[in-house]
């Protein structure tokens, strides 16, 4: 962890950890290793507005900019929208692939869809979606647990590639195997996203390094 | 001495061709497999081998000659332990563990309770809830012995005998006597039993009555309702035997069981909590007339007729106004005539043939109509002794079923006595379990949660109906792909040795492997508009269970016996292993919640299976002074409880229940052979785990007294 930035964006509180690769005065053509950035406790408590996020800036975008290409992904509870298709004016598309975040060295060439009336590009619940709702049949009850081994790969509003792993739906990224979490009375607030991502600014599908 | 045995069987037991039987019969009832109850006159081993077993061949055979592993628990041992119900007895046996799913059943060789057939005198008990037959329904005060045969026995018994068979052999008329037993214990648990024995030359009557009641217990006092609600049950069992001639014997057995339970529970009613009063009843009865004909020294014929009915009712009413919240019933019948013929070719060859037909039916709240199905079956068995040291048992059974495909279940087993202290035995068998009524015909919608479960035969119609009613939001699978349900089947291999390494020591070892395919599972077919799912049954999983079991006993002195039992078990889903090997199973680190790949060696196998199970028991029996005592410790190693990290499989430490031990103690004193006083403590260490093991109450103390009156002052104690 090289630097920690905290910033307030609009009315939303967001703690953002950015791993920045320190490039000195090297040659411009030298590839720079890409490292993951982690967003902690992105608040999506609103049941009305989506909390919008830009991967290029690594920051929340004000809702007043919802009809622009300034944002890439929006969060509202378990619903994720991409800035494209029926959800926004941008070019964003996405898909969920099985695998491990660190092992995904390159974005798939195809398989991306945009949000449509029928379905969001990023499927919510179920084995092909990003989360499981535990209901009453398993412990912990009534919990939203991100599915392990699912990586969201998307093209941003302006067509750059990003891979995202959603880590937690609860404030403070708590362990979900504790009794504190199992008890609904002591469980941390929901609708707070912790996720990590790698954004490739150079337009290629490579997630390992970037060329300036 | 001969009056000790059912006269019906004695005639056949004294068979000129099978010396082993006679020898076994004389020892019957006075010996136990692992616990000697008579004073030592000969070595422990020889007496152990003399127990008589019925389950393995459907006829009485000396245990020593059987090539299949059978554990026999004697009446004396059950009495010394102070057991009241069948679950008490089975909980302490090597390789068995009690598991709870809509009732208390047993897990055998890693199989869930629905795969073990429970028989009373060779006839199946019916009435399973979600596959589990509640073992608490069976009182043990009238049991002569319990036989546990592991490994598939569908070759004799057909469906359900996939993991094995537990055969409860009830007492038979013997002498003239009467016994009254009373017992009182913690949780207001009371038990009264009475037996009457009457025997004249040709007529024998045995009757048993039992009343058992308990206040239950509450491991979670802060919630409404008890962990186990109060219940009372009555068991009546009788057997009448009559010798029509020296060659023709008749016996009639009957059982009637009734139980009522009352409970309190609460549900959310808007923002309030509403209290519900529950009442439940369970009834089962059966009647079993049997005719034995000894046509000649070589031919025996047995006609069996068995009819049983099981029914339950359950109602839930609001406490405030008595309005009905839920009202359900379940009603099952079973009827079976059977003919069995035994042909004793000579001393080394015995052939048994049987044929029969089963009518079964179920009517219940969750079924549209009364559902029926029939099974025709025939079986054959060949007992062969090609060498004096080699016993071979070969058999097979064909079941033709009205609702699913036919099944052929062969079994071959052999035992070779290498020398006087070592025997080797092995078997191969095929077992199956037919799809049950629920899997075929269920049509159930949960009224509170709103999900729907459809049996495979109801699926297409049920989905069409839901679609018509506009209740289907999206189809998740094509109902046609679910197809016709096949029976679950298993191939099993058992290989073991019996050892008598020293005069007072005996050891048996058995390694087993079961390959099970077409396990019936549920998966969602469609999502309903209320967000819940429609589930149905399909054949999918391939599972194996394998392990090894050791049972040993050591007679330290004439009065003191120590026994040790251990089972090692691995039970895994083959599809999960394939996924693990392909690197397709993921988990989240419980601390960071970041995804990682699950390694094959992290897979803990099927849930609810302990890798290690151990028991150690001390039995003290001083007949001269009338004292007996037992101390039994049963350890169940850690086992998987539920998936916690959202990858369906058992892999994380948080998904296990810790291993635990229960220790039970009992002491008895018999005075003048007619009065027996006994006291005991179950779960001496007071272990409990409300969250994971609600079926385990804390420490329980009890006292009991038994009084026996017998003609000629002969005690049956």
Automatic annotation (TrEMBL), chain A:
<protein>
    <submittedName>
        <fullName>HmuY family protein</fullName>
    </submittedName>
</protein>
<dbReference type="Pfam" id="PF14064">
    <property type="entry name" value="HmuY"/>
</dbReference>
<keyword id="KW-0732">Signal</keyword>
<feature type="signal peptide">
    <location>
        <begin position="1"/>
        <end position="23"/>
    </location>
</feature>
<dbReference type="InterPro" id="IPR025921">
    <property type="entry name" value="HmuY"/>
</dbReference>
């Amino acid at each position: 962890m090289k630097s920690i930035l905290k910033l307030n964006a609009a009315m939303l509180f967001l703690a953002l950890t950015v791993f920045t690769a320190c490039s000195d005065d090297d040659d411009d053509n030298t590839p720079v290793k890409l490292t993951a950035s982690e967003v902690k406790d992105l608040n999506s408590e609103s049941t009305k507005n989506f909390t919008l996020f830009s991967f290029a800036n690594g920051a929340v975008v004000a809702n007043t900019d919802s009809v622009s290409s300034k944002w890439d992904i929006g969060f509202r509870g378990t619903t994720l929208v991409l800035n494209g298709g029926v959800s926004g004016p941008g070019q964003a598309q996405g898909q969920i692939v099985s695998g491990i975040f660190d092992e995904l060295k390159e974005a798939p060439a195809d398989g991306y869809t945009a949000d449509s009336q029928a379905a969001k590009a990023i499927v919510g619940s179920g084995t092909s979606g990003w989360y499981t709702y535990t209901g009453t049949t398993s412990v912990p009850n009534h919990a939203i647990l991100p599915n392990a081994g699912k990586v969201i790969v998307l093209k941003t509003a302006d067509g750059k590639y990003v891979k995202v792993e959603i880590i937690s739906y609860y404030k403070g990224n708590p362990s979900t195997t504790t009794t504190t979490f199992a008890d609904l009375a002591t469980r941390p607030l929901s609708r707070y996203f912790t996720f990590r991502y790698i954004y490739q600014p150079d337009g290629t599908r490579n997630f390992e390094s970037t060329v300036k | 001495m001969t009056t000790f045995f059912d006269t019906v069987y004695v005639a056949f037991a004294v068979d000129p061709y099978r010396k082993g039987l006679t020898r076994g019969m004389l020892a019957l009832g006075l010996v136990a497999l692992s616990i000697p109850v008579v004073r030592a006159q000969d070595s422990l081993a020889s007496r152990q081998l003399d127990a008589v077993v019925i389950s393995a061949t459907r006829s009485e055979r000396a245990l020593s000659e059987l090539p299949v592993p059978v554990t026999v628990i004697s009446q004396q041992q059950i009495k010394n332990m102070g057991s009241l119900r069948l679950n008490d007895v089975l909980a302490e046996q090597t390789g068995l563990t009690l598991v709870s799913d809509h009732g208390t059943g047993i897990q055998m060789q890693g199989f869930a309770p629905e795969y073990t057939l429970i028989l009373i005198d060779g006839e199946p008990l019916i009435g399973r809830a979600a596959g589990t037959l509640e073992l608490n329904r069976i009182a043990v005060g009238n049991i002569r012995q319990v036989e546990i045969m592991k490994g598939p026995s569908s070759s004799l018994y057909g469906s359900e005998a996939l993991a094995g068979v537990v055969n409860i052999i009830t007492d038979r008329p013997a002498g003239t006597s009467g016994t009254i037993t009373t017992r009182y214990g913690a949780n207001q648990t009371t038990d009264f039993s009475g037996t009457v024995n009457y025997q004249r030359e040709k007529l024998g009557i045995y009757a048993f009555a039992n009343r058992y009641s308990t206040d239950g217990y509450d491991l979670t006092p802060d919630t409404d309702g008890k962990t186990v609600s109060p219940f009372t049950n009555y068991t009546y069992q009788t057997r009448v035997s009559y010798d029509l001639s020296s060659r023709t014997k008749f016996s009639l057995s009957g059982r009637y069981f009734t139980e009522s339970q009352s409970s309190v529970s609460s549900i959310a009613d808007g923002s309030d909590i509403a209290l519900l009063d529950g009442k439940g009843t369970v009834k089962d009865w059966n009647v079993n007339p049997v005719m034995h004909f000894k046509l000649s020294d070589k031919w025996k014929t047995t006609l069996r007729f068995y009819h049983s009915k099981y029914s339950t009712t359950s109602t839930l009413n609001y406490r405030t106004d008595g309005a009905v919240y839920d009202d359900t019933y379940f009603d099952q019948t079973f009827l079976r005539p059977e003919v069995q013929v035994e042909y004793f070719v000579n001393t080394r060859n015995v052939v048994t043939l049987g044929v029969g037909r089963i009518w079964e039916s179920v009517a219940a709240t969750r079924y549209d109509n009364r559902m029926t199905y029939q099974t025709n079956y025939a079986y054959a068995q060949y007992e062969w002794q090609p060498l004096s040291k080699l016993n071979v048992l070969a058999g097979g059974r064909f079941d033709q079923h009205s609702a699913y495909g036919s099944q052929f279940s062969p079994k071959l087993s052999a035992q070779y006595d290498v020398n006087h202290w070592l025997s080797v035995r092995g078997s191969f068998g095929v077992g199956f379990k037919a799809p049950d009524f629920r899997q075929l015909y269920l049509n159930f919608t949960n009224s509170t949660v709103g999900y729907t479960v459809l049996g495979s035969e109801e699926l297409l119609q049920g989905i069409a109906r839901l679609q018509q009613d506009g209740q289907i939001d999206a189809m998740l699978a094509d109902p046609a792909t679910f197809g016709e349900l096949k029976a679950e089947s298993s191939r099993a291999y058992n290989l073991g040795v019996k050892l008598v390494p020293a005069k007072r020591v005996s050891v048996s070892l058995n390694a087993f492997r079961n390959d099970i395919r077409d396990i019936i599972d549920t998966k969602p077919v469609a999502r309903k508009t209320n967000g819940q799912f429609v589930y149905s049954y399909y054949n999918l999983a391939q599972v194996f269970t394998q392990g090894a079991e050791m049972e040993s006993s050591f007679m330290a002195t004439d009065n003191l016996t120590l026994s040790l039992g251990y089972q090692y078990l691995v039970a895994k889903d083959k599809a999960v292993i394939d996924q693990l090997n392909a690197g397709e199973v993921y988990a989240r680190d419980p601390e960071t919640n970041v995804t990682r790949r699950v390694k094959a060696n992290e897979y803990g196998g099927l849930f609810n299976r302990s890798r290690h199970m151990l028991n150690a028991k001390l039995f003290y029996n001083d007949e001269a002074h009338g004292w007996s005592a037992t101390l039994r410790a049963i350890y169940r190693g850690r086992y998987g409880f539920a998936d916690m990290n959202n990858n369906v499989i058992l892999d994380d430490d948080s998904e296990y229940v810790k291993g635990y031990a229960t220790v039970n103690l009992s002491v008895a004193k018999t005075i003048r052979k007619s009065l027996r006083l006994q006291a005991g403590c179950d779960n001496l260490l007071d272990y409990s785990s409300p969250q994971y093991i609600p079926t385990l109450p804390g420490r329980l103390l009890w006292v009991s007294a038994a009084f026996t009156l017998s003609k000629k002052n002969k005690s049956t104690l």
